[in-house]
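# nightly structure sweep
# worker-07 picked up a monomer target from the shared queue
# config: single-sequence mode, recycle default, output format = structure tokens
# input follows
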Amino acid sequence: MQLHIREKTAAVLEATGKYRKVGRAVDIFLITLILTNVVAIVLESERDLAKAYHYYFLTLELVSVAIFAVEYLLRLWCCVDKLDYRHLDLPNWKKRLKYLVSPLAVIDLIAILPTILMAFIAFDLRFLRVIRLLRIFKLTRYSRAMQLLLAAFKEESSSLLAAFFIMSVVLIMASCGIYLIEHDVQPDKFGSIPKSMWWAMATLTTVGYGDVVPITPLGQFFGGVITLLSMGMVAIPTGLLASSFADQMRKRRDAFHEAVLHALVDGEVDKNEKEHLEALRLELGLSQLEANQAIKLMASQRVHHMYCRHCGKRL
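# output follows
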């Protein structure tokens, strides 16, 4: 009985199977609650509003933390029945431990931990407010775009680390160079390499705040060289992420096309297969129009291959 309830809970929280509609309703409620919290935390930073509506802000905070805590505990309890953990040949406590250290579980914990700790430890309210704002990252669970971006970061992690390492080397070289050229003329701005890093960072990122600028001819020439060099440096991580993001979308479309082809083995898509494809579409974050076009395309290609292109007879 308990196992059956746990499986149902997992299906609702993951919005899969016949509990997909209920799960989507729960997701919409939680998304609304998260956005309401973010707006409330932002408004609470205004002292007049915080004093005038202190009771309402506090009530919303306590109710939200209670709901998020229940959600966190339910996800921890039923995570063993999730598709990602069900196939693992591990005892349930190890599966739950593995879930505890997953990024989404850590985000869920961060959403409730500051308010719980506030009851035992005195916090700076400004620090606490910023930490509570991290609840917005809970939207990652419900946003396919954010999941795609995280997948892109994970896929290109080694390339991005290499790119940032090169940028760090260039940053240090630029800081050392401008320090050697300008430190005698502007000791207040380029008196040390750490001070020079502010100018190097603003120049390498092509922000160019203009509050710290070289004034010697050699310094201005060096600054121009660094600016030209930075145009290519900043584009490297951007290009990697854009390419990986597009590749993630292509992989998801290919996975859906493969599922459609598998469903069309017998020549038609029955009711169960339609439900499976719809669940897969939601999981992959594809639009309804895109999914329908894929099904029509795969079906037309299959029909085309079922007939001889010379005589027109069925193969």
